Amino acid sequence: MDTKNTPRISIGLPVFNGANYLSNALDSLVAQTYSDFEIIISDNASTDATAEICRDYANRDPRIKYHRSEINRGAAWNFNNTFNLSRGEYFRWAAHDDIIHPEFLDKCVSFLDRNESHVLCFTRTVFIDENDNEFKEHTYPLDLAKVSRKRLFMHYVCAHHINTEIFGLIRSDVLGKTRLIDGFVGSDFVLLGELVFYGPFYQIPEILFTHREHSGRSTKATKGPEEYTQWFDSSKKIKFAMPYWRRLYECSVSVMRHPVSLSEKMGYLIEIGRAAKWNHGALWAEIKRASKRLF
Questions:
Q1: What is this structure's pTM?
Q2: The 3-state secondary structure of the chain, one letter per residue
Q3: Do 84 and 186 have their domain in common?
Q4: Residue 130's domain spans which residues?
């Protein structure tokens, strides 16, 4: 790696057919007050004007690198490809339809520079619709200054809220130790749960992230867990999916692969078992649904 010209921050922007909002997202990235970054765009074989837009921005700004796959490999591959191509000390994912305020990177990198134990920094969030109208502020449900590591981990075992913190700024060396985004529904929550073992998170108490809700988002455009699983991994052709069972299993794997004491691992696994008991209705519903589709 050429450390002399290595940017401090890498921004990974995975996209597939994102021409509708892509320019807005890129404009917000290049307008950052903190300028020592690269933008890595990974285009998953888009068939709309995405490629044209990306090449135009890359031609105008040398910090933007455009990569295109000739086949759609699924969202998990595309997210991870941007990280694998990155060079920065810090990394964040960017969605083609979201917007960050000009001070986002400056505030997040300043905090992480001052607080070496923290591994992820994100900000308060406001939601907008297809026409840029604000309609809701997203409230993160935990007080990160007081919450224990086990409580934060269990939050991601059980969470069903919209996951905006996955678009925070993360230490690249820590992110590289994880399994990244995997090919199943909820793998972003599993990744965040895995990051918890490496250090605390912090939320900047300012609204610097704008999340767009629209009909084309993956959670709304896909029908059922099987189609959503194929959105994560296009190579999968499955008869049924059991997303919450899979999340419980993968979170258990995360516990076992980290260097905590055996007694601490048992404590985490017991808590995962309790979560399964509390959510037995949803788990049983997945079994019944899978059985119907299988037989």
A1: 0.94
A2: CCHHHCCCEEEEEEECCCCCCHHHHHHHHHCCCCCCEEEEEEECCCCCCHHHHHHHHHHHCCCEEEEECCCCCCHHHHHHHHHHCCCCCEEEECCCCCEECCCHHHHHHHHHHHCCCCCEEEEEEEEECCCCCEEEEECCCCCCCCCCHHHHHHHHHHCCCCCCHHHCEEEHHHHCCCCCCCCCCCHHHHHHHHHHCCCCEEEEEEEEEEEECCCCCHHHHCCHHHHHHHHHCCCCCCCCCCHHHHHHHHHHHHHHHCCCCHHHHHHHHHHHHHHHHHCHHHHHHHHHHHHHHHC
A3: yes
A4: 3-218
Is the residue at 224 inside a domain?
no
Q: Are residues 255 and 210 in the same domain?
A: no
- Over the stretch 98-156, which tens digit does the pLDDT of each residue have? 999 999 999 999 999 999 999 999 999 999 999 999 999 998 999 999 999 999 999 99
Q: Do both 146 and 254 map to the same domain?
A: no
- CATH code, domain carrying 145: 3.90.550.10
* Boundary residue ending a domain (163, 187, 218): 218
Tell me whether residue 225 is in a domain. Answer: no
In this model, does residue 2 exceed pLDDT 70?
A: no
- Any domain includes 226: no
Contact partners, residue 57, CB within 8 Å, separation at least 6? 23, 26, 30, 64, 66
